Amino acid sequence: MRDTYTLLGACGSGSTIVAAALELTAFPWGYEEVDYALDSPERDRLLALNPLGQVPTLILPNDEVMTESAAIILLLHDRAPHAELAPPAGSALLPRFLRWLMFINAEIYPTFTYADHPQRWLPKTREPERLAEEILRYRQQLLLQLDAAASEAGPWFLGKTFSALDLYVAVMCNWRPGRRWFLPQAPRLLAIAGRVEQRPELNALFQAHFDHVAPLE
């Protein structure tokens, strides 16, 4: 049995959240970059592990495969509570954490599935561009709800308690609708993102994954 976690991912995607979580666990882990939209041996390997062809896909030390970022985060929290990826069992913050973890994954994430490639879901005669525009507007509504739910006291989403929710926020602030939208519309989320990126354990990782994006203001 190996003692290393292996993450298949794509820089700047949701796999960055799991990469950051692994960094915080201090477990030994490796990374394999996969362009999941391009036919290649790397994509074939990904499909063999995860037929959906999605990242993150995590190979555990016993070679079991994990997918779905929320499930991976909860597993890593169980194995590495010192990483503070979630509030401990019995914490008064645990219900809030679980609610918003599932909100992000069940409500916000699907907007990217459908809006990034609208032609998959509607033929061109049915105006796929309009579908993408409507979904983006809906995503903005969801992000406003998430911003309102962030603790006013800060510095983290749950207030004084850091969690994987902050990793999600930091990554999503680099996605559409873009940082210029977040600054006036969702300032709490953008402030959280800035604090996450400044954590010494995560600064280099975020720079590597988002080196094509302007620094957070």
From TrEMBL:
PROSITE patterns for this protein: GST_NTER
Superkingdom per UniProt: Bacteria
EC number: 2.5.1.18
Keyword Transferase in annotation: yes
Top class in the EC scheme: transferase
InterPro entries tied to this protein: Glutathione-S-Trfase_C_sf, Glutathione_S-Trfase_N, Thioredoxin-like_sf
Keyword tags: Transferase
A GO molecular-function descriptor: glutathione transferase activity
Domain GST N-terminal: start-end pairs: 3-84
Protein name as it appears in the record: Glutathione S-transferase GST-6.0
Natural source organism: Serratia ficaria
